[in-house]
Automatic annotation (TrEMBL):
Keywords: DNA-binding, Nucleus, Transcription, Transcription regulation
GO cellular component, one term: nucleus
Protein name, entry field: Fungal-specific transcription factor
Predominant location category: nucleus
Cell compartment(s), UniProt: Nucleus
The Xylanolytic transcriptional activator regulatory domain, residue ranges: 196-263
GO molecular function annotations of the record: DNA binding; DNA-binding transcription factor activity; zinc ion binding
Coiled coil stretches, renumbered: none
Length: 574
């Protein structure tokens, strides 16, 4: 383990990319002081050790693929052709509508040809694509695994991955790009997450080198479908992992095609997801690169508000039965994949909203009025709760993308855990504890489904720590409730002092408050009049003490994620 250099540094583990982080070290120390023990330290250490072990095992795999490449590529025998056909059917039923970059008729016809073995032996790109599709189909046909290199699906993926050097150094083609995309889709899951960034980056570079971002002729429909699916995959992956996208938005001129298989009667989710990809690309470019962070504060705030408004516009453009921020109603989602599409739409929105809410609270603290800060805090809390509420709809299976299965729920759990520990006597803490238990149940389901390969019960420990602490505070066994009150008062004094120092640059507090409200914080997912009348609504909350915002001792000096950077767990390892 690498020691922290200073109290503000995020705790990390060593490795190819030592950016696996949970809380700033100073924050961990403060939480331990509140809890009255160091169990949080021990828990984080256990999680880091477990992840480091899995990453170390995964990092040794690629060389073995290269060594076995020739023996694998020479044999194309299918003793059970019926299973291969079943896996291909599963792919086009369960996965293709989400990522419609292939032509189903063309693929099926080529896969059913009598000379398939010969085609696989002579065309490396087609072989890589074929085996990747079969692997994904097998993964969705109960042949997947949560373990690296284990299971029937991995046998097919191993064959596909063996052609990676040929794709990388060979002549680029549409089939090569599609093969890399298929491998990336398989790699979005727990058992192969270390390959996804590499596959998407190489596919994006190859596609742009072939000029697919400017394909507009009638004969180039397949190119356009492939490019826009790749655009969504690459942009959302980069947004989640804080990597820079290699796709240049300013150089795109091809039209978004109509994709019939990715449309319900009232919801064109393919077009909606592409719009989301463009939005998160703007968020990443406008808020988190070097030039954005160094711009004047009033410009930065204006950008944040504008992006928040765009996100709300995107949300409202979605039909109500799929709309994020509204409780999903399974009885209204009867079409095949409808519930899956609804859950994905919700989580995409919440992922972006959590990022923007953190940004507004952190960067704009001195600019946002105290009353508006309270609204933002409530929205962040409500968003974290919404993420955990939806875990009941997640399919705990090897084919579920890891960010949907674990990353976003874990992020929401950490936010809620932090807030519960700092607000043990809050009126809504009981509800938050119940949601932490629900999240613990979700991760315990993961441990059960993975047969212990993913020890989700470790995450359930956060709920136990929070509940025990709240119980101790309420029974008078802990003094932390008094410390929290003093911290809240201290934070309020600091904010009052900051607001009293004089006029700020740029827009006034009143203008900023009005703009934030206009961006939708009081609508839909925010605080409307009806919500104010409901006892469980955020409008009924007492003031919330927020770490790092209301207590100056938590302040950090840069734009690093201030809670949990769990996507660092899944960064590239090549």
């Amino acid at each position: 383990m690498r020691e922290s250099i200073n109290s503000d540094q995020l705790t990390t583990i060593s490795g190819f990319n030592p950016n696996i982080s949970f809380f700033p070290a100073k924050r961990v120390k403060a939480i331990n002081e509140r809890l009255g023990h160091n169990r949080l330290d021990q828990l984080l250490e256990e999680i880091r050790t477990m992840v480091a072990t899995k990453i170390k095992a995964a990092c040794s795999i690629p060389q073995s693929y290269i060594q076995r490449r020739h023996s694998l590529s020479q044999r194309h025998e299918f003793p059970d052709w019926a299973s291969i056909q079943a896996h291909i059917s599963a792919y086009f039923e369960a996965v293709h509508p989400l990522y419609p970059f292939l032509s189903p008729d063309t693929f099926r016809q080529k896969a059913a040809a009598e000379d398939l073995s010969q085609a696989l032996a002579t065309d490396q790109a087609w072989a890589a694509l074929f085996y990747a599709v079969v692997a994904i189909g097998c993964q969705n046909n109960e042949g997947g695994s949560f373990d690296v290199g284990v299971g029937e699906a991995w046998q097919y993926f191993e064959r596909s991955l063996s052609y990676f050097p040929d794709l990388l150094f060979g002549r680029g083609s549409l089939t090569s790009v599609q093969a890399l995309m298929a491998m990336a889709i398989f790699s979005s899951t727990v058992s192969a997450f270390q390959f996804e960034p590499l596959m998407l980056s190489e596919a994006s570079i190859m596609a742009q080198g072939l000029g697919y971002q400017r394909s507009n002729s009638v004969q180039e429909t397949s190119h356009r479908r492939t490019f826009w699916v790749l655009y969504f995959l690459e942009k959302t992956s980069c947004f989640g992992t804080s990597r820079n996208s290699v796709i240049d938005d300013a150089n795109i001129s091809c039209a978004i095609p109509d994709v019939a298989e990715s449309v319900f009667d009232d919801y064109d989710w393919f077009f909606c997801f592409v719009k989301y990809g463009r939005l998160v690309s703007k968020i990443h470019h406008s808020l988190f690169n070097i030039s954005a962070v160094s711009q004047p504060l009033h410009h930065y705030n204006s950008t944040v508000i504008s992006l928040r408004s765009e996100l709300e516009t995107w949300r409202l453009s979605i039909p109500s039965r799929f709309r994020p921020g509204e409780v999903p109603k399974p009885r209204l989602l009867r079409e095949p994949l409808a519930l899956k599409i609804a859950l994905l739409t919700h989580y995409l929105y919440f992922n972006a909203l959590l990022t923007i809410s953190w940004t507004i609270l952190h960067v704009g603290t001195a600019r946002v009025p105290a009353s508006q800060q309270d609204i933002l805090k409530r929205e962040l809390l409500r968003t974290a709760r919404s993420v955990l509420e939806l875990t009941a709809f997640i399919d705990v299976a090897p084919s579920t993308p890891v960010w949907l299965l674990a990353v976003l729920p874990l992020s929401a759990l950490m936010i809620l855990f932090d807030l519960v520990v700092h607000n043990p006597t809050h009126a809504e803490t009981g509800l938050s504890l119940a949601l932490l238990d629900m999240a613990g149940g979700h991760f315990s389901r993961i441990e059960y489904a993975s047969k212990g390969a993913l020890p989700g019960s470790l995450v359930a420990e956060f709920a136990h720590l929070a509940r025990q602490y709240v119980s101790d505070v309420r029974s008078g066994k802990s003094r932390s409730s008094h410390e929290a009150v003093r911290g809240r008062v201290s934070g309020e004094k600091v904010l009052a002092s900051a607001n009293a120092e004089g006029p700020h640059q740029g827009c006034t507090d009143t203008q900023l408050e009005s703009a934030v409200m206009d961006a939708g914080l009081s609508q839909g997912n925010g605080l409307d009049a009806a919500a104010a009348m409901q006892p469980w609504s955020p409008a009924s909350f007492d003031p919330i003490f927020f770490p790092f915002l209301d207590d100056p001792t938590y302040a950090l000096d840069d734009m690093r994620w201030l809670g949990i950077d769990v996507m660092g767990l899944f960064d590239q390892l090549y």
